[in-house]
Amino acid sequence: MRCFKLGKLLVWLPLLWMQPRLALSQNRLPAGQARLSARLAFPARDTVVESLVQAVSADSLRAYVHTLVGFGTRHTLSTETDPHRGIGAARRWLMDRLNTYSKRGGGRLLVEEDRWILQPDGSRVPFAHPIANIIATLPGTDTADHRIFMASAHLDSRRSNVLDSIGDAPGANDDGSGVAALLEIARIIAGQHFPATIKLVFFSGEEQGLYGSRHLAERAAQEGWPIAALLNNDIIGQSTASETLQQDNTRIRVFSETIPAAETPQQARMRKLTNGDNDSPSRELARYIHDVAKAYIPNLTVELIYRPDRFLRGGDHLPFQQKGYTAVRLTEYYENFTHQHQDIRTEDGITYGDLPQFMDFEYLRKNAALNLATLVNLAKAPDQPAHAWLSAGELGNRTTLHWSAPAHGQYVVYRILMRDTDEPLWQREFFTTDTTITLPYSKDNVFFAVQAIGPDGNPSLPVFPAVGR
Q: Which residues of 143-160 are buried (b: 16+ CB within 10 A; e: fewer)?
């Protein structure tokens, strides 16, 4: 292995000496290539991720949003044929932008339109109408690694009357902000090479009943897509609350489910045995996003919200959770309901309507950068350690954890995370090159998780250990 910097060496040597056996695997880097450096402790700053984050432009995001608003309405049931107005025109422009970025990147970004006919539902879809999702895929370079990391937003917009597909529905923030963020990510990564696959998905039909995401979640489940994480972005571009007028562009909410929607009886039993109610895969993803913000996005804090979505409301990540995928929702900290689902008008001196002038494009830049940094970290990182479990065969004030090497990706070290049972975020970290570790902490008092860390310091998603003997 290459030499450590002295300060990091002093931290690592006692931990390495505690472990007499090294973890050997065909996925483990040759010793001469391993780069155990100060950047391995996460939050880290991978120079590639850092440079990509710096490329995110508030001006580009502003231009995307103004163009989207210029289509008048993007209602799911609006015109498909008008060259300048309606969701058809917006979709064609979006496809053109993505294909332009693909060409600039050497054709690596694959753009597809997934079309079908939306059937009447007796509620928000009164007549049959064409509908389509747009998917931009940056294939992974490791042909043995099929993991998919996905971010999504919805292209459609709505008026106060959800059935009104004719009048103006600008949808600048809901969800022009999410669409703009994904477009900017596509522009930046189109020519990049990462081991795992990144997908950027633009749904239609969200406002009519999550039809686009339901369609794709069903397709993904039927075709066996190995989606390892989904970041759904919906209203991420304004920072002032209606009614209270509180303002904050330094925080973003990440909603994550407590008990997985698709939990099996066996998984429920293990969750109860380990008291893992606050450690669902979606919740571990939310904590991961929190750490990414801390490492890469100055003046932005991720607030963990322990709900699948806002109170009694839902978004495009929910159909994926119902199919067993790990998915979260990113949403601005304060919602402004005078600019959400509202016809454009002025009443009692208040201007209603989802218009660009009410957005905060510097805030949107930070939120887009957060998505980008998370996706690239995950796509560069090794897979999670497999079969993690903690030993329950003995009593004592020590805890022994075991795991297996990741199925995919290169790794140089494992990071063990620990927190008190009443704490939301991981508090301490330990490192080892072995696949087992004994720590002087009682499993009665703390929770653990295990990550694999790649050669550039990119950590895998944490895995919460099961119970073994």
A: eebebbbbbbbbbbbbbe
Domain containing 426: what range? 6-36+384-468
Please check whether residue 397 is in contact with residue 442, taking contact to mean a CB–CB distance below 8 angstroms.
yes
CA distance 182 to 178: 6
Report whether pLDDT(78) > 60: yes
- Whether 44 is in a domain gets the answer no
pLDDT band (50, 70, 90) for residue 392? confident
Residue 284 lies in a domain: yes
pLDDT (tens digit per residue) in 58-77: 999 999 999 999 999 999 99
Whether the CB-CB separation of 256 and 283 falls below 8 Å is answered with yes
Q: What is the mean pLDDT of residues 235-244?
A: 95
- Together in a domain, 180 and 266: yes
278 and 152 both lie in a single domain: yes
Q: Kindly state whether residues 219 and 232 are assigned to the same domain.
A: yes
Check: CB of residue 59 under 8 Å from CB of residue 78.
no
Specify the pLDDT at position 394.
75
